[in-house]
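Protein Record: Sequence and Backbone Structure Tokens
======================================================

Structure line: whole-number tokens from a learned vocabulary of local backbone shapes, matched to residues.

Purpose: to set a sequence beside its fold so the mapping can be learned.

___
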Amino acid sequence: MLGWVITCHDDNAQAILERLEKNFGPLPQCLAVNYWRGLSTNMLSRMMCDAQHQTDTGEGVIFLTDKSGAAPYRAAALLSHKHENCEVISGINYELLEMMYPLRETLSSAEFRDMIVGQEIPGVSSLWHQQQKNRPFVLLHDLYKN
């Protein structure tokens, strides 16, 4: 089963998790990380790292963030590069997670990423999809060649 780390501004992550638990019961491998104004980037990264390790059983972790490019998204992006089967999704809301919840037991992290972005909901994207749009710059010649 994929682990979920729901991370949003203010208390939105906890509110989403509580609504999901009300609907589905206790959610194993699922934690909320709230990003409060004034919380340092270092503390946010530590909280998200702890949540990632608590939710990962080896099948992967999905970071579910509210805003692309915001502090929780950036912290998740940095963590995702250090671990296999780790994806970062932005633009989430309760209804989307409610719809996707049953799929976390059957899909790989990449399949889950493609499925959630494939819903074509405005504002929902993934770090991987954003990286495909903006490929890294590659030199076509060797600057140091004599």
About this structure: Strands lie at 3-9, 30-35, 61-65, 86-90, 125-126. Residues 3-133 form a domain with the Rossmann fold fold (CATH 3.40.50.510).
